[in-house]
Amino acid sequence: MSTNEDNIVKIAKALSDKTRLKILNEIVRRKSITCNEAKKIAGLSQPTVSHHLKILAEAGLLNTVKDGRFLIITVNKNSLDEFSSFISTNLLK
User: Which domains does the chain have, with CATH numbers?
Assistant: First the structure.
């Protein structure tokens, strides 16, 4: 499998969980969130939300920037565009 295909598989696996999909959708809608906001969105414990955020970040779907005590989380639009393009080009023919 090529590196591009590996990335697509990672993204697909990350998006296969409804909690991660919910968090990602909210980040897209709000443009950015903090970890505490992600906890409120998911309605889960901080360690569980951190786990979900880690999976999304490892898939390349999130960008993070430290702002004092806070971690600002945004969507990596390039990764989402790459995934969308792959789906459109290869699966929706």
Answer: 3-91 (1.10.10.10)
